[in-house]
Structures are given as structure tokens and as C-alpha cells.
Amino acid sequence: MKKDILGLSFEELKNEDFFKDIPSYRVEQVFSWLHNKNVSSFDEMLNLPKSLRENLKETYSFNGVALVKRLESPTDGTVKYLFSLSDGELIETVLLKSNRGLSVCISTEVGCKMGCRFCASTKAGFSRKLTAGEMLSQVYYARVDSGERIGSVMLMGIGEPLDNLNMVFRFLDNISDSRGLGLSHRHISVSTCGLIPEINILAEKRLQITLSLSLHAPFDDMRSEMMPINNTYPLKSLIAACDNYVNTTGRRISIEYTIIKGKNDTKICAERLAELFKGKLYHINLIPLNEIKEKPYESVSKSEAYEFQNKLIKLGLNATVRRRLGADIDAACGQLRRDETEKRM
Ligand code: SAH
User: Fold this and answer.
1) What residue spans define the domains of the chain?
2) pTM as predicted
3) Which of 8, 125, 152, 175 satisfies CB 3.0 to 4.6 Å to 12 for a cystine?
């Protein structure tokens, strides 16, 4: 099988047998075409001799994403891409515009095995993990399509990033390489449903990324019903791992909390959140639920979301309500892929 060239770091590329007898400036040119100029084929690497391009084609694969569908929100400019991969699998990527610049939300797996009840990504099943190249390619596609600088990247699309940690590390190396996009880790968020061993590995790496924890419920019984992973990694040990992460890295954790009407928006939940997080380096990000087809849960109105936010603030927590960008184009994780997969069946 041909090697995925996009996923190789600069050092790895330099040490490849292929480049042994080729002048070293050629490695820099190839890396720059891939990660800075963001071409999507070897044929576009115009300053390389044709013979070299042909040899590259024979040795490496270029497993980028290919556009299937592009939806743009007329209200807030959010763009949602449905991409196919070289084996025909489908993933989604979202480009969001805010006053701090463009942000790309990428998928890390084809589908998801975590089984959260409110999430469309998990409903269409899990096929495989993405390669680092496939993750990079989503950012590069959105960059070329928008023609603008990408200010931040979120690993918050389809899949569980910490279930694909080695590829995520590879992705982080390449995206921050100054010969490529040069995006600092401080502008990258990685979201997890709470895989403790991987949170511990991340803590030891002491990266400058922002870790987001999808909490959604402050009690074990409630959380286990919403998120099966809580049966494996219950709250007490999960929060202990997160506290350790904060203490080791000095970085604030962002708690994702999807508000569900009449369930996790009560006074008791607010008080429990304060017990868990008050006075520590956490920020609570409230997200009104994006209802999916099965409708296991009901969403809240904007004013109800702000009401819950006020409860938390009064209890001494840092809390904001996330804007619902792209609501008019089904920008909630996994809905496009799921619809398209069902159509093809
Ligand atoms: N697996 C990772 C990242 C992907 S999900 C994680 O669990 O964090 C990205 C975020 O969207 C998570 O916080 C997830 O819980 C949330 N989410 C999923 N479905 C949603 C929905 N229907 N409405 C609101 N948020 C949702």
C-alpha cells in the first residue's frame, strides 16, 4: 500500500528512503506544497521536475478529502462540507465565522462508537478512524475554499479524538509546523466525551491546546443514561483526571454542557456543577441542544439558556452560552453524513 504523504511530519519526510538521493531543498518544496500552499495533487507541485512528480505519485498516496456537498448558511455564513474519502466513506467539516476570524471544526473518525443518545454522529455507526492526512486535508480544503486565514481549529466534528490519539498527535505536529500552516496549539481545541487514560497521556505531553470535556450532566445516573461512556469512566475519577490535567498543564479546561429541557437545567444540577468546578480553572460552555430526528430530548429556548447561565454565574462559575451557528443548515454534528448514508442504503 502507498504511504499517506500528508500525514508525515517534515522530519519523517526528510528521512524517507525516497528522498535519500534527492537534494534536501526538494523536501522543503514538497512539504510547502502540501502544508502551506495546500495543493490537492502531485501534478500541482509546479516547481518540481516532472519525473519527480511521477515518482512521488507511484510511491505515495494523496488521501485528501473530496467535496460531495457544500451548504452555506444565508444568515451567519457558516459553511458545512460533506466530504468523501479515498475509500468512499463520508465525513463532515464546518467552517465558522466569528469576530475572531475563521474557525474550522473537523471530524476525527468516520462515525463514532461512543453512543451518546443525543448525538447524530453515533447513530450512523462507526466505520474507521481518520488518518492525520485526512484531518489536515479538511482544514486545508476549508482554507482554500474561504481564501482566508484560518484562526482556529476544533477537533469537535464526527468521532472521538482521544480514541484516535496517535493520529491526533501527528495532526497537531503538522498543523503547527511553521513551514506549513503554522497554527499555534493555543488556537486548537480538542473535545472528548471523557476517556481517562488518554486524558492522562495528554496531560503528560503538556501541550498548549485547549481540552474540552463533554460533561452534559453532573450526576452519574443522569450522565450514564445520556452517555454510555460514563459507565466505564464515572464522574469522580473523570473529574480527578481533569483536575490533574489542569494542574499539570496549567491550561483551563472547557466544560461542554448541552442544555436539555427539564433534565440537566435544574437548580440541583447548577449547584452540583458549582461543587465540582467552583474556584478551579474551568470554563462552562452552555450549548442549547440541537434536536436530532429521534428527539430523545427537548431543547431549551435562548432565554432559558441564559437563565441557566445566570444561575451558574450567581454560584460563582464562569459560564457562557454558545451561539448556535449554522442552525439553518443542520450544522449539528453528523446529520448530513447520516442522511446521505441512509439515502445510499
Ligand atoms: N466525541 C467528542 C467530540 C465530538 S462531539 C466529544 O464527545 O466531545 C462535539 C460536541 O458536540 C460534544 O460536546 C457533543 O457532546 C456535542 N453534541 C453532540 N450532539 C449534539 C447535539 N445534538 N446538540 C448539541 N450538542 C451536541
Assistant:
1) 3-61, 66-344
2) 0.95
3) 8
- Report d(CA 301, CA 249) in Å as an integer: 36
Of the candidates 116, 119, 269, 333, the residue annotated as catalytic is 333
State whether the beta carbon of 199 lies less than 6 angstroms from ligand 1. no
Query: Residues 232-288: pLDDT tens digits?
Result: 999 999 999 999 999 999 999 999 999 999 999 999 999 999 999 999 999 999 998
Q: What gap in Å lies between CA 197 and CA 200, rounded to an integer?
A: 5
Amino acid 326 reads G
Q: What does 141-209 look like in DSSP terms, one character per residue?
A: HHHHHHTS-EEEEEE-SSS-GGGGHHHHHHHHHHHT-TTTT---GGGEEEEES--HHHHHHHHHHT-SS
Q: Where are the alpha helices (DSSP H) in 206-234?
A: 220-226, 229-232
Mutate to test the pocket of ligand 1, among 108, 165, 168, 191 (most ligand atoms within 8 A of CB): 191
Ligand 1 centre distance from Cα of residue 273 (Å): 19
| The pLDDT value given to residue 99 | 78
Nearest 5°: the CA angle 64, 66, 67 is 145
What is the topology classification, in CATH, of domain 3-61?
Answer: DNA polymerase; domain 1 (1.10.150)
Q: Are strands 150-155 and 188-192 parallel, antiparallel or unpaired?
A: parallel
Q: How far is the CA of 333 from the centre of ligand 1 (A)?
A: 7
Q: In this structure, which topology does domain 66-344 adopt according to CATH? A: TIM Barrel (3.20.20)
Distance, CA of 183 to CA of 186 (rounded, Å): 8
